[in-house]
Amino acid sequence: QRHWTVFYWAWTISWAPFVGIFIARISRGRTIRQFVGGALGVPLLFTVVWFSVFGLAAIDLEMNHGAGLAQQVRDDVPLALFSFLSNYPFSSLTALLSVLIIVIFLTTSADSAALVVDLLSRRADRVSQMRQRIFWTLLLGAMAAALLLGGGLPALQNVITTLGFPFCVLLVFMAVSLTRALHADYLGYSLADLAAGRTPHLDPMGADPGDRIDSDRNRH
User: Fold this and answer.
1) Which of 45, 58, 117, 144 is the most exposed place for a label (fewest CB within 10 A)?
2) At CA 43, angle to CA 38 and CA 46, rounded to 5?
3) Over the stretch 64-75, which tens digit does the pLDDT of each residue have?
4) CA quadruple 22, 23, 24, 27: dihedral positive or negative?
5) How far is residue 128's CA from residue 120's CA, in Å, rounded to a whole number?
6) How much is the pTM?
7) Hey, CA dihedral for 9, 14, 19, 24, is it positive or negative?
């Protein structure tokens, strides 16, 4: 489990293309400030609250009540949550609710991934068809099931880690491209101007505010 940090980083990176395109689609018309607040700020706040509440409760059970959660994590990570919930009242109800939340998470994630794959695999002038999205959903589910049945969790981790590395390199170029696009927008140029090379030299690390004044003078 000492390698789980690398796995989670690779897992996050491998999801970046799907999540990025999906959020961009549903955030059309929003400002960058609204996008950052909704896509980054709210999930970050929820994560902090989640780990603060459940993490502190788990530490208290382990240190003061001898719940044996640490051993449960070493033995079987997926069952650790239910072992944690069994120490509190209404454990059956909370366990059922946890399963329901996990199912909803997996369903919405698969639907989002299928939507993105469908967008990438069809022509821009064609309307998305439900049967095509169902096909991609079933295919993604079959691939995940085959990996789990064939090699279990280690096989799935290895595939995710392997796929995450090339995306990591791609994300570096995407970050530079985003910086240049924001710089061009600040100078008053469009993405079409940027793609056609009609912009001055854009430093990927940012722009001098005076560049906009000079650029406006040159354009007029």
Assistant:
1) 45
2) 130
3) 877 778 887 777
4) positive
5) 11
6) 0.64
7) positive
